[in-house]
Design brief:
The complex is a heterodimer of chains A (about 400) and B (about 170).
Chain A lengths: L8 H6 L3 H10 L4 H14 L9 H16 L4 E7 L7 E9 L10 E9 L10 H11 L8 E5 L9 E5 L23 H20 L20 H17 L5 H12 L8 E3 L8 E4 L4 E5 L6 E3 L2 H7 L5 E3 L6 E3 L5 H12 L5 H28 L6 H8 L2 H16 L1
Antiparallel strand pairs in A: 1-2, 2-3, 3-5, 4-5, 6-9, 7-8, 10-11
Chain B lengths: L4 H19 L5 H20 L3 H24 L12 H10 L5 H21 L6 H22 L22
Helix pairs in contact in B: 1-2, 3-4, 3-5, 3-6, 4-5
Chain lengths: ~400, ~170
């Protein structure tokens, strides 16, 4: 017995019509640049499928991009794939150029990373925004310098950027097989060194003065006292759920309504990293020093509580050596993180906003895993479908946790 | 005779872990990572394939229970629109009774019920029964999602897998 075939939700999302795309855009208004990126993703889905990109293609495109930016020919050597990250394709290379000062007779070799999108991703994001935010935080927190970008894919197969090579590792050497950041255990000695820096850098990010445009020009500006920017973020998550999901989940519809109705007004505008957690920073294991904060593609201007609750998500937790204490992002107990953050940043932590963004972030990761990751895998749209397929297996753990958490705070 | 699927997956597992992986010493990190993840995917199939039918049937039964509870709730509210949810209940029961039903039929049906219930959540906005409907969905979703988590146990994401209960699908639905 097989049921007769009819057009399904799956068909609509795998091959979206213009009307479907425009309908979702209208229902879930979000930031301008986010709208551009998500709309492009949907149109791309009807185009040619993702083809494996060779190093030679990236070298050629990278040389043309950089030459266009610096105004003279450059050479790329020693290109190799760089592991790490679930969403973007990365190439490590040496650039032979004249260096920052550009003297005609200068010969400089600089290790750099080219970071390029694929046809789809677990986090569909803007290279322009990523470039702008790294430029904005440089000097306040350790980040690789953002050199050049190709936001419209004029030189490379997909939008890309070039940034400096950050030394260090995202995982301890004894735990290199783990998917980066998921339940990452740094061990007691390294943890004691990294945890204070983890709090310090988050505090610096949130205290960073937000200048007027053209700084962060691709970011819509929230208004203190208004919840409109929070609602735009909730809508962005719901929009991706509508665009990418493989199956509907009734509780996602319930939680969406709650998030819209209970969105808190912004009390202070902060730069929010958006993916601040274990695994998203590099460190020098011997020195116990964080060398670079990475993965800025989810950054927004918004509420600091978003980062605090994201870092504390269960997906990034593990038990301490006493087998009782739960360490968030492999660092410290959640209460200790919040207390340390208040002390270091001088910014208050509001329990109501912690609860709200606790729901928001659980809703977000449920969408990323059950919709974005699962859809990208089905579309064979990335260079690491096997990784996205694997992490989508966390989706029901995330959704179950969302259900339990939501019930606990709304009881 | 051809070997069972589980045996086919078992031999792939052994070849990848005992022959291919050791031969990749010195390979790039992303190559090793993709091999580990491929082995995890094969291992998941090997462990879950024997239970798939019972699991899919259990999921159908769980969503039928949720649908029946919603239909009962709406019956107590004059003017409530069930959006045809009541029609899923006899269809679902017939599906579970049919010896010819295939796994894909169970999955498709579950997807349709989920979509119908989600649609009700949206249309209930501002109606007198909205809060009760939302609460019912959250209450009923908890045990269903717990089973989904148990299903994904072989992927190794649970902090304390030993804390999870035995799966419902161990008993025939």
């Amino acid at each position: 017995m097989t049921m007769p075939y009819t057009a399904t939700d799956e068909d609509v999302r795998q091959h979206p019509s213009a009307a479907f795309i425009e309908g979702i855009r209208a229902r879930f208004p979000t930031e301008r640049e986010i709208d551009v990126v998500l709309t492009r993703k949907m149109h791309r889905r009807n185009g040619p499928s993702f083809q494996a990109v060779s190093l030679e293609t990236l070298v050629s495109g990278g040389e043309r991009l950089i030459a266009d930016q610096v105004g003279y020919p450059v050479t790329i050597t020693d290109a190799q794939w760089l592991s790490g990250g679930a969403s973007k394709l990365q190439m490590l290379f040496h650039l032979h150029w004249r260096g920052d000062r550009g003297a005609a007779d200068a010969q400089v070799v600089t290790p750099l990373v080219l970071r390029m999108e694929t046809a789809a991703s677990v986090t569909e994001s803007s290279r322009r925004r990523e470039f702008e935010v790294i430029r904005a935080v440089e000097g306040a927190v350790p980040v690789p310098h953002a050199f050049w970008m190709d936001p419209g894919a004029a030189f490379l197969p997909y939008p890309a950027m070039v940034y400096g090579f950050a030394s260090g590792s995202a995982k301890p050497s004894y735990d290199a097989g783990k998917v980066s950041g998921l339940g990452q255990n740094y061990g007691p000695a390294l943890r004691a060194q990294l945890a204070p820096q983890f709090v310090e850098y988050l505090s610096r990010i949130h205290n960073l003065p937000i200048g007027d445009a053209p700084v962060l020009a691709s970011f819509d500006r929230p208004v203190v006292g208004s919840n409109a920017s929070v609602i735009r973020q909730v809508n962005a998550v719901r929009r991706i759920w509508e665009e990418d999901r493989v199956e509907e989940e009734p509780l996602m519809a319930v939680v969406y309504k709650w998030l819209i109705r209970n969105a808190p007004p912004i009390d202070r505008i902060s730069l929010v990293h958006g993916d601040y957690r274990s695994g998203n920073f590099m460190f020098d294991e011997a020195q116990g020093q964080i060398t670079a904060v990475l993965d800025w593609e989810g950054a927004v201007l918004g509420d600091r509580h978003q980062d605090l609750t994201y870092a504390a998500l269960p997906l990034f937790q593990h038990y301490a050596e006493d087998n009782e204490t739960i360490l968030v992002s492999g660092m410290m107990a959640e209460a200790d993180l919040l207390a340390a953050y208040e002390r270091v940043s001088g910014l208050p932590v509001d329990p109501d906003r912690i609860r709200y963004f606790g729901v928001f972030n659980r809703y977000l990761v449920s969408m990323l895993l059950l919709a974005a990751s699962a859809r990208a895998t089905r579309c064979a749209a990335t260079h690491q479908d096997v990784l996205l397929n694997h992490v989508s297996g966390m989706g029901y753990l995330a959704l179950s946790e969302l259900c339990d958490y939501f019930r606990s705070i709304t009881a | 005779m051809i070997q069972a699927f589980e045996t086919q997956l078992q031999v792939v597992q052994r070849a990848l872990s005992e022959v291919v992986l050791p031969a990749l010493t010195g390979a790039s990190g992303h190559v090793i990572e993709q091999l580990h993840l491929s082995m995890a995917a094969v291992g998941f199939m090997q462990q879950r394939m024997p239970h798939a039918r019972r699991y899919y049937r259990q999921t159908v039964a769980s969503y039928l229970d949720m649908a029946a509870a919603i239909v009962t709730l709406l019956a107590d509210h004059a003017g409530a629109d069930g959006n045809g949810l009541e029609t899923f209940i006899p269809r679902g029961r017939a599906l579970l009774d049919s010896p010819l039903a295939e796994d894909a039929d169970y999955c498709r049906f579950t997807g349709e019920v989920r979509a119908a219930i989600s649609g009700l959540v949206e249309t209930a906005q501002g109606r007198g029964y909205e809060a009760a409907l939302d609460a019912l969905i959250m209450d009923r979703s908890g045990p269903i999602l717990l089973q989904e988590r148990i299903w994904c146990l072989p992927l190794g994401f649970e902090l304390r897998p030993e804390d999870l209960p035995a799966p419902d699908w161990a008993a025939p639905a």
